[in-house]
Specification:
Length: 293
């Protein structure tokens, strides 16, 4: 077959276009400092890089969840620390009111402070997590969990709990969901009353106030009421401290998971660099050669 002049020109132009295209692509690689700009540059590396990037994105989401879980648990810990201090003060007031040398009028100052402490405890139990969600309502986080006035409880009532028993969880790894909020039923309700039954911490405080404010409650009967109240407060403290201990364990686990996730992030970044990054010196050398060509 004879080769025409036009065919020779067309072949030369096609060759020049291929070289120009290759030169432009190399310039783009140098500008981006990446070897793999499109899957066709290295199909195997591109596929592997996609897998690694997806894994890195999932790990990054878990790291975000670690921060959210830690913030929520630390807030719950702060609230329960306040509850611990409050119940400790209630014990002190019970002991003070139980002093047999006090007159009825003198012991009323303890009752007045205990009423204030009751309201504070109710506020803690109905606290939110900063996003409007009730911290101790279980899965019913949009519902205010606790209600009941101290006078209603003194008259024989009990605090009402509108939440449920479900601990809210957040996924912090591929296989781990961690509790980020404990239901109020585990913290403030179901306290052993020392008589074979159970009651709320609120009822414990209310009964103590009722005993102190009853002018006819004196002598051995009053001492027995104070002793019972101290026992119930101690058991209420045990309940709160037990939950605080569980929170501490979860925070420690989050620290471990975060450290592992940080290490994985470094590994993912290194793997992506190995797959995608450009050998800059070699690329500049190739660019110079192609420009000369």
């Amino acid at each position: 077959m004879r080769i025409s002049t036009n065919m020779q020109f067309d072949s030369g132009i096609a060759s020049m276009n291929r070289q120009l295209s290759s030169l432009v692509h190399l310039q783009q690689q140098i500008a981006a400092q990446q070897r793999v700009l499109t899957p066709s540059d290295d199909p195997v590396a591109a596929a592997r890089a996609l897998e690694v990037q997806q894994a890195a994105d999932i790990s990054a989401q878990f790291r975000t969840n670690h921060g959210s879980a830690r913030s929520t648990l630390e807030l719950e810990e702060t609230q329960l620390d306040s509850a611990t201090e409050l119940l400790t003060r209630a014990k002190e007031l019970a002991l003070s009111a139980g002093n047999g040398t006090l007159t009825f009028a003198q012991r009323q100052s303890a009752a007045t402070e205990l009423r204030a402490r009751y309201d504070q405890l109710m506020g803690i139990a109905n606290s939110t997590d900063g996003t409007g969600q009730y911290m101790f309502a279980g899965y019913q986080s949009a519902t205010r969990p606790f209600s009941g006035t101290i006078d209603a409880l003194i008259a024989g009532g009990e605090a009402s709990y509108a939440g449920d028993d479900g601990p809210r969880r957040l996924q912090v790894s591929a296989t781990r969901f961690i509790e980020v909020a404990d239901p109020g039923s585990d913290v403030f309700m179901g306290i052993d009353n020392g008589a074979g039954g159970s009651q709320s911490i609120f009822k414990t405080i209310a009964d103590l106030v009722g005993a102190i404010e009853d002018p006819s409650n004196t002598g051995a009967a009053f001492s027995a009421d104070i002793t019972a109240a101290l026992g119930n407060i101690n058991r209420g403290l045990d309940s709160v401290l037990s939950v605080r201990g569980a929170i501490g364990s979860r925070l420690n686990e989050l620290d471990s998971l975060s450290t592992s996730a940080d290490d994985m992030a470094v590994q993912y970044a290194q793997t992506l660099s190995n797959l995608q990054d450009l050998d800059y010196a070699q690329a500049v050398s190739d660019l110079t050669r192609k420009q000369a060509g």
